[in-house]
Amino acid sequence: MKKRYISALAAGAIVLAIGGMITYQTWPRTIEGPREPMELTLEFPAAPQNSEIRISQFSTGYNISPEALIYTGGNFFEQHQSVYSGFVVEHPRSTFILEGGIGTNIAREHAENFNFFYENLFAYTATETAKELLAANGKSQSDVDFIALTHLHWDHAAIIPDFLDTPILVTENELNAAREEAVENQSYFQEYLINPETEWEFLEFTDGPYGPFDKSKDMFGDRTVIAVPMAGHTAGSMGFVVTAASGKRYFFIGDTSWSIEAIKKAHPRLPFAENIVDHDVPMVHDQVWLLQQIMKANPDLMIVPTHDGNVVKQISAYPAFE
Ligand SMILES: [Zn+2]
């Protein structure tokens, strides 16, 4: 009798502990402001009027999970689709892919680089790779001048082995930090970072401030594609502001947040997810808050988190362009 009483107590304690942990992880947290007061120009400079840019999106895979796992305060009963997306950007001077999702050998790469826990945590359904998509539309690697990646976590760098002759544009700091961290950090797959055949190109922020960002890079000198530093999620993450010929302006923010709803509410990721994926959690919080302010100050701007399926699908799917 006494034994049964003790095991009932133990079971109760376990239920309470699990309940407490879930409550702690998913409890809505709102980022109220930056750690230090900032004097910020939130409004972006006027968009260029003469852009000839065409833009198109594609998804190389996805996974579905309750929104409550994507950001704190998310709905437990709302299904969120996370996508491994990429964007084909055509500028009169060059065509490039921004992000790019997962590649042809992802099943092997996943199995070889992840332990059991991470393999299940980051389970995905693969659809069509960028390489396959281009081929299906009569294009090939040679039609892509370069690939720009916001950062080098596995789910972004996974496009690299499929485009070995195509320059990969990142910040130098990002590549150096990724190579260093890849030894222990499961978010990086070392094999994507050390292949001597990969041609790296480094983006330097040699231009002046852009809105609240203290430096930038006007990639074609015509203000149609502006790269801005967004370190936080990784050591050298960056974002891209792209103005299309249609006049629409997009802000590709990589993984600073996984969800536009989270940015609207300034809600961060769950603590356990932040600890796994973010390089500098307080810095990411500042940026999520900043994105909320940018969103309010630039109502015509479309903020695009790389993995938010609901946002990505609002852009024309390849081979259709905006
Ligand atoms: Zn990612």
From TrEMBL:
SMART domains on file: Lactamase_B
Keyword 4Fe-4S: no
Key word Hydrolase present: yes
Domain Metallo-beta-lactamase: 83-307
Keywords from the named record: Hydrolase, Metal-binding, Zinc
Domain of life the protein comes from: Bacteria
GO MF term set: hydrolase activity; metal ion binding
Matches recorded under Pfam families: Lactamase_B
Xref: Gene3D superfamilies: Ribonuclease Z/Hydroxyacylglutathione hydrolase-like
PANTHER family assigned: BLR3078 PROTEIN, QUORUM-QUENCHING LACTONASE YTNP-RELATED-RELATED
Similarity remark: Belongs to the metallo-beta-lactamase superfamily.
Protein name, UniProt field: Metallo-beta-lactamase domain-containing protein
